[in-house]
Amino acid sequence: MATRESRRPEFAGRETLFKDVGDEHTCGGLTTQHTSGARATPVQRALLSKAEEAAADEAAAAAAAAAAAHRRHQLIVALLAADVGNGQGPQGKKQRDTEFDWAAHVARLTAAEFKLRYRLTAEAFYRLLARIKPHLCVSEKQALCSKGTLIEPATKLAMSLRFLAGGAVLDIKLIYHVSKSMVFHCLWLVVDAINLTYPIEFPIDDVERLKVYVRPVRPRLQAAHTL
Questions:
Q1: Nearest residue to 134 via CA among 64, 190, 70
Q2: Which stretches of 87-201 are DSSP H helices?
Q3: How many DSSP H helices and E strands does the chain contain?
């Protein structure tokens, strides 16, 4: 009676070859190499089935994540489209800018913080304000019509001193609730008021008086020149 190998000579020795290869690449009794022509063992078929199941699970998870991301994107687009009609932005309904409260601002500052911010003590600040205030006051009707809001003289002086102390315009406009152009408007208003209140004459033609002005500064200039 003919054996299976004799009936199909093309498979003769294939099982032996597969067994030899499996023996050479065995880890814990299980073969790690699969040849396309050899017959897989039950263990190999079980491992292959588990790998296919894992791949299918990964594909399903990826598809679910993509679908969830698509739903989130559609929800965001729908919310943004609804907010456009209501005058809202991504961060919610826009808040109208409120007027700056000078009294509340000063109450939050210590004496040291006030001097650090405005380079003057509170006493010197209000003494200067009292001198230049007539040049800073305008009628409430004129202020509301021309700029849209009423700005106290103290706030005008504070903005100007903060700018002259090195403050950035963008920061000043946010702190005092004004526009960028209003910062510069108040700055030159205060400068003109100080020039009118404290007239300063520079003796350009008086050499002796110029020496008096230069004398306190000369040592610092010489020290800076030697560096």
A1: 190
A2: 102-107, 111-118, 122-136, 140-147, 153-164, 169-176, 180-197
A3: 12, 4
Backbone φ and ψ of 120, nearest 5°: -140, 150
Q: Which of 170, 137, 131 is nearest to 156 (CA)?
A: 137
- Report yes or no on 64 lying in a domain: yes
Residues 134 and 185 in one domain: yes
Work out the burial of residue 189: count CB atoms within 10 Å of its CB; fewer than 13 is exposed, 13-18 middle, 19 or more buried: buried
What letter represents residue 44's amino acid?
Q
Q: For position 124, what pLDDT does the model report?
A: 95
* Distance (Å, whole) CA 102 – CA 71: 49
Please tell me the distance from the alpha carbon of residue 60 to that of residue 15, in angstroms, as a whole number.
Answer: 38
State the pTM of this model.
0.50
Alpha carbon 45 to its chain centroid, in Å, reads 56
Task: Summarize pLDDT for 11-22 with one digit per residue, the tens.
Answer: 444 444 444 444
Residue 150 is part of which domain span? 102-214
CB 31 within 8 A of CB 22: yes
Mean pLDDT, the chain, as a whole number?
75
Q: Assess contact for 13 and 3: CB atoms under 8 A.
A: no
72 lies in the same domain as 106: no
